[in-house]
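Bench notes, afternoon.
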Amino acid sequence: MDLPAEASADAARSDPVPRRGLAGLSPDSAAALELVQLTKLMELTAGRAEVRIGIIDGPVALEHPELARASFRAVQSRDASCQQPGSSPCAHGTFIAGLLGARRDGAAPGLCPGCSVILRPLFLEGTDAAVPSAHAEELCQALSELLAERVDVINLSLAVRFASPSDQRALELLLNTAAQRGVLVVAAAGNQGSPSASLLSRHPWVLPVAACDLQGRPLSLSNLGASVGQRGLLAPGSRINSLGGSGQIVAASGTSVAAPFVTGTIALLRSLAPRAAPAGLRWALAHPPQGSRKRTIVPPLLNAWSAYLLINSKPSR
């Protein structure tokens, strides 16, 4: 994710409610919601508090005026707030949190502000790496803590590095546990423009997300590949507005930006269809309106409304 790209002034916001129009969004952000048919879904619900979204990322500027503050909490014994608002980890964590939990009618999409968001900060504010990444051992600990919180879906807008064979096996086992418990895991495919699969995207339970432009075309920086094409989705990742660590609005691009569109869709679908099985949600997301598709390295475009219609037209899977 590229931060920051631009900024604009803040404004007072109302309590979270289903969006009535897109007047508060930038043209690009509004077009992104329309591209993946999220607007109609957002008109039905702002999310339910019983639905828990887990975010493993940087710390979050919880005092940002556009955050639905009451919806956020950290895992036990951890502080999720930013100590250095100008740091890259704070900027990244706040941006992702804003995409999912910002107040409706603001400059960020605010996909599911009525949901409960459980924060598990991982990136340290003393490090300002351009690409947010985590050791596999650190990621395993974070995943274990979120699974203990009984979250419904986990957003991973990050890369995994320095994984020993034992760490890789531990990560695989934790993702297996997530699958057994029905916890959906959404992971950014990566921004290296590479056809190779990451540790995360290779796991059959993970939903890898590639980034596209506002015409639905994959961005050149987005990783693709067999596992992404077979099990993943395309989602908007080009100049999307969200929240900055110092109280501003910023725009960014990349697969870190795209992943929360899928995570937010899952949370909204879970809010509207609480009895739907997690496997049924995955199945609905993987079946675009055009029906069956050839397996390629490019995944289908997310279609939130189509998934909602499929869930309501077929028995729980």
